């Protein structure tokens, strides 16, 4: 009976390890299926009357670790999006500062990237 009570904890610990590997590899498209499985295991664990405190501590540490990886991945995605936006708008305008220290935007002329030749 004791092993039955530990099963959701063991399954969740294994899932958190898989999640960590996926995050470290940057394979974010593989995260979505884990979310549903993790939610179900957490719900099952919450319904248990008793859970070993040491196991809960291990779960909490791995959840925290993975959350930090999620935060880092999100920061990376945001940085890429910002960089792509900067590249997209490059040449369309430029921010400069006047002698008074006020910001001024100089509009550029976007040129077509393709040229038709006869």
Question: What layout of secondary structure does this protein have?
Answer:
Layout: H1 2-25, H2 31-46, H3 53-89, E1 93-97, E2 103-107
Antiparallel strand pairs: 1-2
Task: Report what the structure shows.
This protein has 118 residues and is mainly α. The chain has one domain. Helix content is 65%, strand content 8%. It has 3 helices and 2 strands. A two-stranded antiparallel sheet has the order 1-2. Helix 1 runs antiparallel to helix 2 and helix 1 packs parallel to helix 3. The longest helix has 37 residues. It is elongated. 5% of the residues are buried.
> Spans of 5+ residues with little confidence (pLDDT < 50)?
1-5
Strand content: 5-15%
Number of helices: 3
Please compute the radius of gyration using only Cα atoms. 25 Å
What strand order characterises the main sheet?
Answer: 1-2
Protein name: FlgN protein
InterPro entries: FlgN-like_sf
Label this structure with key terms.
118 residues, mainly alpha, 65% helix, 8% strand, elongated, disordered N terminus, FlgN-like_sf, FlgN protein
């Amino acid at each position: 009976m004791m092993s039955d009570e530990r099963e959701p904890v063991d399954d969740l610990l294994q899932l958190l390890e898989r999640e960590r590997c996926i995050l470290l590899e940057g394979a974010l498209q593989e995260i979505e299926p884990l979310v549903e499985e993790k939610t179900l295991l957490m719900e099952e664990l919450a319904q248990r009357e008793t859970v070993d405190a040491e196991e809960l501590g291990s779960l909490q540490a791995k959840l925290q670790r993975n959350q930090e990886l999620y935060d880092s991945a999100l920061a990376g995605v945001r940085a890429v999006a910002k960089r792509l936006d900067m590249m997209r708008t490059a040449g369309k305008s430029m921010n400069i500062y006047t002698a008074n220290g006020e910001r001024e935007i100089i509009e550029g002329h976007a040129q077509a990237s393709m040229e038709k030749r006869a």
